[in-house]
């Protein structure tokens, strides 16, 4: 003959095991989800960093060629209706953008 208290204890143990199993499964699923989201965020951040680095490289080239063009062909600006002050301002704006992008490690 079984004791009611023993049966109650066995039922409680089964309930606790079932609950723990569910918690373990939920923890594993949550860990996988967090890892996947973190991995995706890392990939996107790296792509964005590469894009900013490409932009910075392009701007560096533009500043250099713009400065060289103004020095070598000062009369050409007049043909396009661009003053030296406008060209200097554009180069200055590009340099400010380069300064802002300098915080990115390439």
Explained architecture:
The protein has one domain (4-101). Helices cover 88% and strands 0% of the residues. The chain is built from three helices and no strands. The chain has helices at 4-72, 74-79, 84-101. α1 (4-72) packs antiparallel against α3. The longest helix has 69 residues, at 4-72. The model has no long low-confidence stretch (mean pLDDT 90).
Mean pLDDT across the residues is: 90
Q: Rg to the nearest angstrom? A: 33 Å
Structural class: mainly alpha
- Number of structurally distinct domains: 1
Pick out the low-confidence regions.
none
Shape: rod-shaped
How can the largest sheet be summarized? Answer: none
Q: DSSP strand (E) fraction?
A: under 5%
End-to-end Cα distance: 77 Å
The sequence of SSEs as H and E is: HHH
Helix fraction bin: over 70%
Number of helices: 3
Number of strands: 0
Gist of the model:
Helix content is 88%, strand content 0%. With 106 residues, the protein is an all-alpha fold.
List the defining traits of the structure above:
single chain; 106 residues; mainly alpha; 3 helices; 0% strand
Task: List the topology elements.
Blueprint: H1 4-72, H2 74-79, H3 84-101
